[in-house]
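Researcher: Last one for today. Full complex below.
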Amino acid sequence: MRRFGSGLPAEARFIPLSLEVLLGIVLLVFPLADSSALDVGRVELLLVYLMSAVALNFVLGYGGEMSIGQPVLLTAAGYTTGILSIHMGWQWWITTPIAVVVSVAISVFMGLPGVRVRGWYLGVLGFLGVSLIPSITQAFESWTGGTTGLANVLPVEHNGTIAPQWVPYEILLVFTIVVWIASRNLIASGWGITLLAQRDHPHAASASGVNSMKVRTVTSALAGIPCGIAGALYATIQQFTSPQTFTTQTVLLLLGAVMLGGRGRRWGPVLGIAVFGGLSLWVGPFSSYNPLILGCGVVIAALLFKGGVIGAVETLWQRYFMPKTASGRMMAGTGRSSGDTIASIETPPHLELTGVNKRFGGVTALNDVGLSVDGGTVVTVVGANGSGKTTLLNCVSGFVTPDAGQITLDGKPVNRLASHRRAHLGFARSFQVPQLVEELTVLDNVTLGAYGLRPQTVLDAVLRTPRYRARARAATATATAACQMVGLSERVTRLKVGELPLAIRRIVEIARALAANASIICLDEPVAGLNLAEQAQVSETLRAIAASGRAVLLIEHNLPFVLSTSDHLILLRDGKIADSGAPADAEDTTRQLGAYFRAFAGAAEEAFDKVPAEAEGDAPPSRPFKARPADG
Amino acid sequence: MTVPTLATFELAIVSGLAMGCIYGLVAIAYNLVLAASGVFNMATGAVITTGVVMSYVLGQRLSWKVYAVIGGIIAVGAVTGSMAELLGVRRLLAGARSVSHDTMVSTLGLGLVGEALVALLFGNDIYPVPSYVSSNSVEVGGVPIPPLYFVMPAVLLIVAVGLEFLLRRTEFGVVTRAVIADPEGASLVGISVATVVQWSFVAAGIMAAVSGFLAAPLLSASAGIGESVTVYAFAAAAIGGFGSFRGGVVGGLIVGLVGSGLTPAFFNSNWSLPLLYVIVVPMLFFRPKGLFGRAGQFGSEGERRV
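Model: Here's the assembly. Have a good evening.
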């Protein structure tokens, strides 16, 4: 049976489970074999770093957000534990959960601007936050002990005496293993797919129903948990916490480790922390060579390894040990057979636009546009570049809010709804440049459609409850069915999108819309760059979709394709509807063709101007507006 | 909380504005590189540290004349700035589509290397740096003001006006503005974006090193001193609007006034940074473009791709 969730970690193929278990056992028994206090303390620090690096990898590697506030969280958790244990006399098992809550709250606050800004913005803010640690501890000196920090944090006790050193070590290790397994389960679930989609293509994610604000907030909150545990336990173990324990250098250590090991790779943090942590312990954490080596390592990691060491090994592994995919025969795996029917929907939708206006600065992109799309039909909007086609689509799918006018679905206005809310009502769309996660398989990309509407709860995913399994099975089944409907063979669904040609990527986007069980499917130039055979295939697929009762709103330049596919044509010129009618109507067709040619005349002239003089006599027959009038 | 007298109030404002000029200068250095290349140069702190330390080494240990020291500082800034570009950024800018994360990490690493090198060569001791102008205060309206405080606004003014002139009135400026507005379009019409990026790093390096020199008498020379300036300059750039020169100046003055002037004078200097942070986070949430930044530029709404 297929593994649950996604095919995310390709690394799993060369890092066997046995290695994971072996590493765990070595760490478990290590303090019994070597009881030197110094070494145990060092490994404890490495475990704290590892937990934080796993958190950083989660937000940076999978979430794509430069959230580097981990030292703040570690310090806050440490002080929470310290203050509660000194002032209240509470034991570690009470203080640690409270510290986690504090850490989560700070993490969410620090991630707050991430809702609006991305990239280095968040990184700068995180750095600013880390630089605040000394000031804040000094500002609250009576509570935090100022620069000297808090001593006499209560240790782990057993029957009223201090437990032997291996006890807190094993507690820390158990929590590290729990964090490791939880993060693995979460990444392998629908959350992994959702995060990657949001990281690489936020628009596609929200068009598939992903509430990006919620996902970001949950991501920040989750990333606070490991740091909270690690910071609290480390303060308990050390019986001490200070503003110098975790500093801006810790940021560098964690960032460097995640980048060097491989961000967005499960084993990346382990490898990176082993290298950097080991080096740092070898030269001594307070040696002035430590930052020098660390800095060089970080620069090398950023410059040389895109996917880190794990990514590099992955590439080599794929080159030498994986079966080659014959890209020439790619299309052989696609094509609908007559048996593949598209599941029909119960109530055909009715989409209506009335008086839609949109201005960008001084440009009127849409001017009093009104149209309606019924279930069971393909409605195509044609028009020259800049006539407002894409703006129209953006208005329908919720990426642009019209200045005036109504957009209603089955009589209910949807104007004010965000795109992810519209996805839940049955809207789906494709993009001019397909927005798919390249490192995921076709099936996983299609699964996003299912998960966008019915996300798994974090707890279910982490614990792998029966409900999680049922939902994962359902999502996979939905996606598989959607792939079948558009004619993607099982072999193709297992390939990574990065290996696929454009034609198949466009079909995958259609499959994603079907997996979301969309009733209104908007497609932005679905056959741009496709050859005639591929165009015919897309045309047939779209007809089948319409036959299932769904509504298709199409934007397209390609006239033969448009005429063979559409039930209704709308000509947009300078943001206004210039003409509309059915292509089947012979009289209409002639009239409309005239209109198209007038609309395209400018563009066509321009195009022919660019053809070299000697080639002008025999323009390629594939040029649609050249070939067509000869037929008619 | 101390009861403010008029004199301490005025002195706080003056000293805050003076430090604000330093932050503004560094914020402009950030924004210049950011505008030209989309890179947030995290190595700037190390360049400032180098500027501070070199002004001590050249001026005190080697007893150079002030003008020679300034020349040396400018050279050091240009060299370190271009090294940041050469080692940390060039390779990445040539390759990827979105470089925001990678360049941040690489310049962060370079900054750490730079600071570590300074610490290794210079040691971890703190040396006071005497003022490069007379240290006898000038009475203005009954408030004794160190002449140092007049130099900083003057330099900021010269840099701001000079940059404005360079960008508006020269051919190089036109080319640079084209790159700032639309790097892809600029490279299509034959402008070498890489050259403009290199010059922006050199100019930003000089600004950072000079700001280190200017602030040296207030900060004292020690390894790692640059970070204390960059943190305020981040806030300045964020409040003023990333990528905007005018924003850098105004943001710098605001941050200086609040963070280095009024808060330490009447409250407690430990509250300066937390206060600025609490201003900056909601600011970025509600108005990502800052006071003067343009919407959609440099990651404020859409991530800039180079």
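Chain B touches chain A through 52 residues (CB under 8 Å). The radius of gyration of chain B is 19 Å.
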